[in-house]
Batch of 4 targets.
Target 1
Amino acid sequence: MNKIILSFSLLIASLFASAQTPFQGGIYNNTTWTLANSPYILTGSVVVFPGKTLTIEPGVEIKVTADNTFNTGNMLYLEVRGSLVAQGTQNYPIKFTSTQPNPSSYNWLGIKIMGSQGGTFSMDHFELTNSFYGLHNDVAEIGVTHTFNDCIFKDNNYALQLNANNVYNYCTFQRNGIGQAAQYVYGGLTASNCVFNNNICAFTWVYSPVNVTNCIFNGNTNTINGISGNLTNCTFDNNTNGMYGCSDLIIDNCTFTNNEVAINELSYGLVKNSYFNGNDLALLITQNTSVIDNLIEANGVGIRVNGTNPNSTFINNNSICFNTQYNIENGTNQNFSVALNCFCSGDSTVVEDLILDGYDNITRGLVNYALYDDSCNVMQAFIQKINLGENYNLSTGNLESEDFSLQQVGDELFIYSTKDVTIKLYDLMGKIIEKVYFVNGMAKIDVSDLNTGIYILSTNENSAQKWYKK
C-alpha cells in the first residue's frame, strides 16, 4: 500500500514538474496565470489590452523565448496597455526571465508599461532577469510611489526605467548595466538594506534627493552618478568609482574600502563620521564641500582638492594618516589651510612629504597645516607657508584672526575689527548661519539658538577664526 501511495505522489510531482504553458499574442479578457500552469513560456510577444488585467499568482515563473540579436526587432516583450498585477510573496516570488538566463545576457526586451494608453502595474516580491530595457514606463508617473520588497534585478541592461518615486527594501541589483536608470523628468529613490553588486552603474541622475541607508555597494564600475540627498550607514568596497559628480549630498557614517576612487568630484556636499581605507583616491572634492570627523588612512591619496575656490571647503577634525602617496593634494593654484586636522605625526618633514602643493609643483597653491600630539587633540605647531590672515593659539587650538577679535557675552557674540569687512558665521558642515556687517568697528550676532560646538567665522578678505560655543 505504501508503495502505491509513494508511486502516486511521484506521478503527481512529475506532472507538476513537467507542466508548462506556452503563450503569445493578445490578452483581451481578464486573465490569471496560475502556479499550477507555471512556467509560462512566451513564444511570442504578449500585449495586455486596455481595460483588461493580467494577474500573476505568487510563485509563477515566466520564461521569455530568448533572442540574442538586439535591434533587429525580434526580441520579445510583455506590453501592458491595461493592468498588470504581479504580487509575489517572500517565499513565492514571481520570476520574469528568459529561456537562456545566462550571466550578463540581455535576450528579451522587458516589461513595457504603456502609461500613455492607461497602462498600470502593481508588482512586488519578484525577480527580473536578462532583459534589455527592464521594467519601463513610457510616461512619468507624477506623484506615484512604487515599493519593491525583496526583489531581485539581475543581468539586465537596464533594470528599471521609471520616472516615479521608487522605494527598495532588501532588494538585490546584480550584474546589470544600470540598476535604476536616470530620472530626468520626475522621481526619487529610497533604498534600505539593499545590495548593489557588480553593476556598471547602481543608479544615476535621480530627479529628487535620494535617501539610502544600510546598503552595500560592491564590485560596481561607476556606482552612483549625479545625485543629491543622503547616504547613511552604507558600505562601498572594491568599486571603480564609489560615486561620481554628486552635489548637495550628505554622506554620514559610511565605509569606503579598496575602491579606485571612493568619492569623485563631490561639490556642495558633506562627508562626516566615515572611514576610508585602501582606496587609490579616497576623496576628490570641489567647492563648498565639508569633510568633517572622518578617519582617512592607508589610501593612495587621502584628499584631493579641486575647483575654483578651495577656501570654500571645510576640511576639519579629520585624522588623515598613513596615506602612501599624499595625505593632501592641492589640485588648484590657490592657497588654503588644513590646520584643523591631525596627520598622526609630530615630525614636520614626514607631514610635509605627504602634502602636495606649491612647494612640489609651482602650478599649485600652498597649504598651511599643523602638527599635533599623539592624541591628535593638542596642537604643537602651526606651519604657515602663506599668510591667509590666520593665527593659532597653541594653548587652546583656536584659530585667531589678525583682522578681527571675538567676545561672547551671554547669548551675544561681539566681533570687533579695524577694517571694513563682512563676517560670515559657518557651522562645520559649511552652512552659512549668519552674515553681518560692521558698524563703527563692531558687529553682533545672537547665538542663543546655536548648539554647543565649533563654528568658523570668516571675512570677505579670506581671514578666518575658529570659535567654540560653550
Note: Residues 251 and 387 are 32 Å apart (CA to CA).
Target 2
Amino acid sequence: MTAPHLELGRRGEDEAAVLLSRQGFRVLGRNIRNRCGEIDIVAMDGDELVVVEVRVRSIGEIMSPEDSVGPKKIRKLVRAGTLLVESKNWQGPWRIDLIAMTVDRKGEWNVEHFRDITDGAWRP
C-alpha cells in the first residue's frame, strides 16, 4: 500500500504530464534518475529541452508548492539537468520549469506552470 502523500505526488505528476501534452510539449520521460537526483518530467517545448519539477500540496499545508522549491532544490535541479544534457550530448537550449499543484478537499486541482524558474541565471 502506497503512502497517501506519495500517491498524491504520483497523481500530480500524471496530471502535469497531461497538462504539458495539452500545451504542446512532447513528454520524453518521467522520473529520470542520475547521480545528482531525480527529474520528475523531461519534455520538449519546440526545440527547447525542459526539465520539469512537479510539486503537489493539499489545501491547508503551511507552504505553497512553489515556495517549497528553495535555492538548495534549484541547485540540485541544475546539477541533475546539466548531467542529463551532458549525458545525452544535448547541444540545444534547455530550461527548468515548475508545475505547482494544490488539491482541495473536493479533489479539485489548482495548477500553475512557472517557466524557466532560474530565469537563465545559472547558465554559463
Note: Residues 4-100 form a domain with the Trna Endonuclease; Chain: A, domain 1 fold (CATH 3.40.1350.10).
Target 3
Amino acid sequence: MHFEFPPEKRYFSIGEVAKGFGVNTSLLRFWEKSFSALKPQKKANGIRKYTHEDIQLIQLIHHLVKEKGMTIEGAKNQMARLKKGGTENVDILQKLQKIKAELEALKSQL
C-alpha cells in the first residue's frame, strides 16, 4: 500500500496516517514502541504529529510486516541491513513499491 500525502502539508495526525495505510491507530503506536527510529513529534498534550519522513519509515515497516509477512524482529533486522547499505536502498524500495502499485492499477483496468 502506498500512502499519497499532500506535499504542501507538513504534519499528519495519527488518524490520517492510520487511514492512509488501512491500519488501526493502535498498530502505529505499537510500531512506535517496537521501532526506535519511528519517533513522531508529540505536542504537550500527547497528540502525535507525523512528518513526511515518519510516513516514509511507516511505508517501509508496513511493506516488511504487512506485505512481506515479516515478524517485528525480522523487519528490524532487514531495516538494519538497509541502513548499512545507505538510504539508496530505501529509496529504491520505495520507487519499486510505487511502480508495483501503478502496474497493479493498470492490470485491474485490463
Note: The domain at 14-109 is CATH 1.10.1660.10 (Multidrug-efflux Transporter Regulator; Chain: A; Domain 2).
Target 4
Amino acid sequence: MASHGRPNYVAIWGWLVALMILGLAASFLPGARGLAVALIFATAVAKALLVALNYMHLKFEPRLIYAIAIVPVLFVLMLIVALFPDFVFSR
C-alpha cells in the first residue's frame, strides 16, 4: 500500500466550524423556511463529507469502499426528500 500524506486537520476543523456557523445562521434567516432547511441540510452533507474523507481517511481507500458506501447514502437522501415537506410545512 502506498504511503499518503496526512490531511491538514486544523484547516479541516476550521471548515467544519465555518460550516457549523453557517448552518446556525441559516436557522435565523427571516422568511423562507424551506431555504433555511435546505441550507442546513447542505452544510450537514458538506460536514459529513469532510469528516469521512479526511478524519476517516476514506479518500485514501480503494474505489470499492465508495461502492459499498453509496447504498446508505442513497437511503439517507431518500429519507431527506421524504421528510422535507414535514420540516418545511409543519406548524
Note: DSSP finds three helices and no strands in the chain.
